[in-house]
Amino acid sequence: MRSLRTSTLGALAGGALALLLAACSGGAQPGTGASTEPSGQTTGDGPGAGLTIGFVPGIASDPFFLAMQLGAQEAAQDLGITLLWQGAPDEYSPQSQIPFVDSMLTQKVDGLVLVPTDPDALQPSVDQAADLGIPTATVDTTVTDQSTLVAHITGDNEEGGRLAAQTLAEQIGDKGKVFLMMGSPTATTNTLRQKGFTEELAKHPDIELVGTEYANSQPAAATSAVNTVLLQHPDLAGIFAVDGTSGTGTVAALRGAGKAGQVKLVGYDAYENQVADLEEGVYTALVAQRPGEMAKLALEDLVTTITGGDTSSIEKQVVFPNTVLTAENLDDNRQYVYPS
Prior knowledge:
By secondary structure, the protein is of the alpha/beta class. It has 2 domains: 2-155 and 290-320, Rossmann fold; 157-268, Response regulator (Rossmann fold, 3-Layer(aba) Sandwich). Helix content is 38%, strand content 18%. Strands 1-12-6-5-4-2-3 form a 7-stranded parallel sheet, sandwiched between helices. Strands 8-7-9-10-11-13 form a 6-stranded mixed sheet, sandwiched between helices. The two termini are 31 Å apart. 55% of the residues are buried.
């Protein structure tokens, strides 16, 4: 495994298939939900000229995946491939995602990049791609059996959870009650962040984890969960929101309760609106990833594989580092804010 873990706390700080097939007739720009061919046409002068590669994100409307889409578009232009970007517009679930993957396999794309919403539910899709001879890479999340994958490329989620715990502990004076606002109970990124967070928190005996809830990429669910815990624990000191949509709902709850800035909030990802909330003091820290770089590497690895290039240069497991953004270090780290 190649590990790019160079960050430190101080320095870094279904849609129905019929509707899907109908959507395949036209392109869409980032932010419009389910989309296809956002990068347009093959340039014809790159190493992947003539290839069509499908890319199925976890949820097309999420700013994390929109930033990943922009990175994929840039890479597609450099590589000369036709990029098919298709994803569920507003629901992060296997039921919503699988029809889009099925469509890619039906179209017999030359390669596939997948962000599995569930490691087991998407395993048959990865197996089917292998049976069809379609090289597949996973980005961000992955499947249980990775043996047929060209590569799995992700952020350092376990370390991100540890950094979140370390940062939150420091911000609350190493004592008090904290709450964990999870996204999905099965997405590998979320479970690894939870593992890192809880293991690190166990090293701080005066900090009590008072609860864990799941939003499943629905901000309203996060708002409801945080409202409840604020009523149960009016002395709550801090919250870790493990993904962007959970963070959005948490911010709404804290603002509604008049506790924005009082309850320390460490979030994940660096959407422009999150960074604005960080500058305002609602978030007290953000763990930023590198979605565009992940997408770019996945497409490069697939092109190398499909064109018979030197696959010895491809590493099966790649882990990108995180950067902890705070109000104090933001000016020096704005390159990690996700583009939109």
